[in-house]
Amino acid sequence: MSQFLAALSEAESEPDATVVAEGDLVDEDGELVTEGVLDVGVRTDIVVISTNGTRSIRVDSTRTISFSPVDFQWGTRLSVRLQPFHWDYCELNVSPPLEAPGSHALAGWFRHWFEPRETDARILGVPHFISDPELRGARERYFIDLGTAPVEAFEQLLDACLLGGATDVIIGSAQ
Fold it and tell me: pLDDT at position 175, please?
């Protein structure tokens, strides 16, 4: 988070620039652009609009959240293995593949958290991206940019996996 705020401060210090933090991608009519199997939007990190043109700043983690892997039970039936991962490129592996009756559980989670939150800082408290599922053997793999989302969003991500029928989740590379 501190890296994102530092990049935002640097962008805001540019004279006569308009800075958009965590802007959602919209079409010419201002409607959210969605795509992929999950039919969800995406947010940019930072966009700077100035007399020199428009540029996008991508803020990527320079380090992995590092700890010894932990195994735990979430709810009554979800086994979770939590391994080191990047907050802005979190690999999520679920088994069995998530059921999508009516609407996909992870799409619902993402849409809920995609809406801006009131935070204490100049951030929205939102995830920025979720990939389409990729089948890898008995698992589905997703990549998620958790952006500036709070830990509560991460906890609700596990709830969404449970709701979608997962019994086993690996956060971090399943290799």
Answer: 55
pTM of the entire structure? 0.89
- pLDDT for 38: 92
Of 173, 175, 167, the C-alpha closest to 99 is 167
The DSSP secondary structure of 116-154, one letter per residue, reads ----SSSS-----EEPPPEEETTEEEEEEE-TT--HHHH
Q: How far apart are CA 32 and CA 82, in angstroms?
A: 33
Q: How many domains does the chain have?
A: 2
Dihedral of alpha carbons 86, 88, 89, 91, sign? positive
> Residue 32: how many CB atoms within 10 A of its CB?
13
Q: Answer whether residue 102 is part of any domain.
A: yes
Q: Look at residue 2 in the predicted model and tell me its pLDDT.
A: 80
Residue 126 belongs to some domain of the structure: yes
What residue type is assigned to position 7 of the chain? A
- C-alpha gyration radius of the chain: 17
d(CA 104, CA 82): 23
What is residue 162's three-state secondary structure? helix
